[in-house]
C-alpha cells in the first residue's frame, strides 16, 4: 500500500469526468506525488491505464473492490504533464 499525497473521489461519475478530474489534479501535483482515486465507472480501468502510459506516469496500483475501482498513480516527468 502506498501513502498518498492527494485523493480523488469519483464515485458515481461517468466517462469522461473521472479522467478529466485526474488529469487536472495530476497537472497541479509535484513530480513524485501520489494520488489515490476511487471510481465506479468501469471505463476508468482503460482510461487511467492509457493516461498513465501516454503521459509517462506510474500506475502503481489498480484493484477492484465490489463496484469500486481503486487506483494509485505516481506523477512522473515534467510539470507540464
Structural notes for this entry:
The protein is α+β, with helices and mostly antiparallel strands and 81 residues long. 30% of the residues lie in helices and 32% in strands. The chain has 2 helices and 4 strands; from the N terminus they run E-H-E-H-E-E. Strands 1-2-4-3 form a 4-stranded mixed beta sheet, with helices on one face. The protein is globular. The chain starts with 5 loop residues before the first strand and ends in a 7-residue tail after the last strand. The model has no long low-confidence stretch (mean pLDDT 94).
Quick overview:
The chain is of the alpha+beta class and 81 residues long. Helices cover 30% and strands 32% of the residues.
The residue ranges in which pLDDT falls below 50 over 5 or more consecutive positions are none
Strand content: 25-35%
Order of helices and strands: EHEHEE
- Helix percentage range: 25-40%
Overall SS class:
alpha+beta
Q: Give the overall shape.
A: globular
Q: Mean of residue pLDDT?
A: 94
How many distinct beta strands?
4
Radius of gyration: 11 Å
Number of helical segments? 2
Amino acid at each position: 500500500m502506498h501513502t498518498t499525497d492527494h485523493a480523488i473521489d469519483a464515485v458515481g461519475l461517468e466517462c469522461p469526468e473521472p479522467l478529466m478530474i485526474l488529469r487536472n489534479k495530476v497537472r497541479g501535483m509535484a513530480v513524485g506525488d501520489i494520488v489515490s482515486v476511487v471510481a465506479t465507472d468501469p471505463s476508468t480501468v482503460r482510461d487511467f491505464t492509457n493516461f498513465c502510459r501516454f503521459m509517462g506516469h506510474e500506475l502503481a496500483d489498480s484493484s477492484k473492490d465490489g463496484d469500486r475501482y481503486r487506483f494509485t498513480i505516481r506523477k512522473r516527468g515534467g510539470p507540464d504533464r
